[in-house]
User: Fold this.
Amino acid sequence: MSKIVAATYNLHKLEEYRKLLAGQELEILSLNDCPGYEEPEENGSSFEENANLKALAAANYCDLPAFADDSGLEVEALNNAPGIYSARYAENDPARIDRILKELAGKENRRARFVCVISVAFNGEIVGSFRGEIYGTIIEKPRGINGFGYDPVFMPDGFDKTFAELAPAEKNKISHRAKAVEKVIEFVEDEMSILDNELGTF
Ligand code: ITT
Assistant:
């Protein structure tokens, strides 16, 4: 089974990746399996730049293929904040949710989307970056206990439950992370079949 490093210390993300990639003949390691690793500073100005630098640093340090995501919530009426600063918007999940709700108080437009960009790094370079998005609205009060981060206030379009009220398997069918993972799998399958065809010509 091939090994790949999921370059994250976020155990909720890791859990989602292990489920989303369950059928893939992959042993998914995390940064907890890379003793001594020091995370690079997330100083990119886009989800793509941050995902690239996280994936590359982990692949180089662990000498294995690695992928990383940079993800977050973009709220239309807040000029797309918190965006790439989603993890740093306040000191913990409840405080981050509280800040969003306060900033949205009195505003009619509560449209938002989650974004996830996954970059895959191999042999010292980024081989691809893949984006998934899901649109929805921010509700007035947190609901539900599943998931993590902003899930209790995000209600995806077409549902009357928040991400935190959906079962994990339901979130994993529609989420920004699931959509980005689908693109990664498609890319890897295409690359493998190109490789197979090339090897077949010898
Ligand atoms: P790593 O960098 O170690 O992967 P992190 O939590 O710092 O972990 P990010 O910099 O990508 O990750 O920040 C993503 C933040 O966006 C995350 O901490 C949540 O606050 C929010 N977020 C991302 N995906 C989410 C999801 O599926 N549900 C709820 N909140 C999410």
About this structure: The first strand starts at residue 2 and ends at 6. The beta strands are 2-6, 26-30, 66-75, 111-122, 125-138, 154-156. Residues 8-10, 13, 42, 69-73, 86-87, 114, 147-151, 163, 175, 177 surround inosine 5'-triphosphate (CB under 6 Å).
